[in-house]
C-alpha cells in the first residue's frame, strides 16, 4: 500500500508534469471506483490543472475548482505515460480503473504535448477510490484525517496527547488515519523498530522516554523516506520503498541493527514484522492479536 512517502513522491511528480495542463478526457472503466456523482467526472474535461495536493494518502488534482481526488488503497497504483493511447477501454476488463489524458505545457525538462495516466488495481478485492468534488473536505475519510506527522504543528506535545489518551496497541494507533494521517502498515513497523518498541505495547502505558523515541522515529523514518521518494517517477517508487525497509517485509532475514532474525505476526489481511531483540526483549510474539507480550 502506498503510504505518506510514496504519495508525496506521486504528488511531486504529478505537479511537475501536470501543473498548467489541460484535462482532455477522463475515462472511468470501473464504476465501482467512482464514489461521487455530482459534479460528473466529465466536468473535469477542458479545465486546467492549477494545483496538485496531498492529504494523508489522498492525491488531489485541482482543475480550476473541480477536484479529482484518488486514494490508491492496498493494491492500487498510478501508471504515467508520455504517449497516451487513443484505444478505447472496455469497462471491467483488466486492471485499469480510470484513464486521464492531458495536454501539458512545455517545461525546461519536457516539451508540450499529450501525457496521461492510468489508475490501476491488482487483485480481486477492489478498494481504490476516486472522488470528483468541488471541495476535498466533502470526502468524509479525508475530512476526518488526523494531523500530518511531518507538519511543524505536529509537536511532541500533540503526539503525547494522542498516545496517553489511547488504550490501543501502539501499532494500531499509528496506522489509524483519523489519529495520524499517512502512516500505514509498513512505516509503522519501521517507526517502532527504530524506536525499539513492541508493536503490541499499549499506547497509554508508554513512558515519556519511550514516547519521545517514537516521536523522533516518526520524523526520521518518514522524513528520510520522503526525501528518497520525491524526484522519482512512479515506476521507481515501489522499489525505493522496499529498499528502505529494515524489518517490514523482511521476515526471516537478519535485523540490520542487531542481527537477530526478523519475525512476523500474521492477521487475516496483513502481517507485521519486528525484531525480538530490538523491540520485545527477545520474546517471540504470538501470531495472533491477543498476544500477551505487550512490552
TrEMBL record:
Residue ranges of every copy of the Formamidopyrimidine-DNA glycosylase catalytic domain listed in the record: 2-104
Catalytic reaction equation(s): Hydrolysis of DNA containing ring-opened 7-methylguanine residues, releasing 2,6-diamino-4-hydroxy-5-(N-methyl)formamidopyrimidine; 2'-deoxyribonucleotide-(2'-deoxyribose 5'-phosphate)-2'-deoxyribonucleotide-DNA = a 3'-end 2'-deoxyribonucleotide-(2,3-dehydro-2,3-deoxyribose 5'-phosphate)-DNA + a 5'-end 5'-phospho-2'-deoxyribonucleoside-DNA + H(+)
Cofactor(s) needed for function: Zn(2+)
UniProt domain FPG-type: residue ranges: 246-280
Keyword line: DNA damage, DNA repair, DNA-binding, Glycosidase, Hydrolase, Lyase, Metal-binding, Multifunctional enzyme, Zinc, Zinc-finger
Keyword Transcription regulation included in the entry's annotation: no
Record-linked Pfam families: Fapy_DNA_glyco, H2TH, zf-FPG_IleRS
CDD domains xrefs: BaFpgNei_N_1
Superkingdom: Bacteria
Family: Belongs to the FPG family.
PANTHER family with a match to the protein in the record: FORMAMIDOPYRIMIDINE-DNA GLYCOSYLASE
Protein name, as recorded: DNA-formamidopyrimidine glycosylase family protein
Provenance organism: Arthrobacter horti
Amino acid at each position: 500500500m502506498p503510504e505518506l512517502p510514496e504519495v508525496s513522491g506521486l504528488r511531486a511528480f504529478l505537479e511537475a508534469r501536470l501543473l498548467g495542463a489541460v484535462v482532455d478526457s477522463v475515462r472511468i472503466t470501473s464504476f465501482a471506483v467512482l464514489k461521487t456523482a455530482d459534479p460528473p467526472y466529465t466536468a473535469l474535461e477542458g479545465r486546467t490543472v492549477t494545483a496538485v495536493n496531498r492529504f494523508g494518502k489522498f492525491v488531489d488534482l485541482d482543475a480550476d475548482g473541480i477536484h479529482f481526488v484518488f486514494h490508491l488503497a492496498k493494491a492500487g497504483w498510478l501508471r504515467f505515460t508520455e504517449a497516451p493511447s487513443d484505444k478505447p477501454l472496455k469497462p471491467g476488463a483488466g486492471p485499469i480503473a480510470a484513464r486521464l489524458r492531458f495536454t501539458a505545457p512545455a517545461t525546461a525538462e519536457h516539451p508540450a504535448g499529450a501525457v496521461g495516466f492510468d489508475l490501476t488495481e491488482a487483485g480481486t478485492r477492489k478498494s481504490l477510490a476516486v472522488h470528483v468534488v468541488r471541495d476535498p473536505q466533502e470526502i468524509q475519510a479525508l475530512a476526518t484525517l488526523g494531523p500530518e506527522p511531518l507538519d511543524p504543528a505536529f509537536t511532541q506535545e500533540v503526539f503525547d496527547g494522542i498516545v496517553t489518551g489511547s488504550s490501543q496497541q501502539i501499532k494500531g494507533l499509528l496506522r489509524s488515519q483519523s489519529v495520524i494521517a499517512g502512516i500505514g502498515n509498513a512505516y509503522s513497523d519501521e517507526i517502532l523498530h527504530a524506536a525499539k518498541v513492541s508493536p503490541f505495547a499499549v499506547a497509554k502505558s508508554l513512558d515519556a522516554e519511550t514516547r519521545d523515541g517514537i516521536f523522533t522515529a516518526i520524523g526520521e523514518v518518514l522524513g528520510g523516506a520522503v526525501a528518497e521518494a520525491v524526484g522519482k517517477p512512479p515506476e521507481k517508487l515501489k522499489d525505493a520503498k522496499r529498499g528502505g525497509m529494515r524489518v517490514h517485509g523482511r521476515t526471516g532475514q537478519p535485523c540490520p541493527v542487531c542481527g537477530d532474525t526478523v519475525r512476523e505476526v500474521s492477521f487475516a489481511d496483513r502481517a507485521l514484522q519486528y525484531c525480538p531483540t530490538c523491540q520485545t526483549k527477545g520474546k517471540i510474539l504470538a501470531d495472533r492479536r491477543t498476544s500477551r507480550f505487550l512490552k
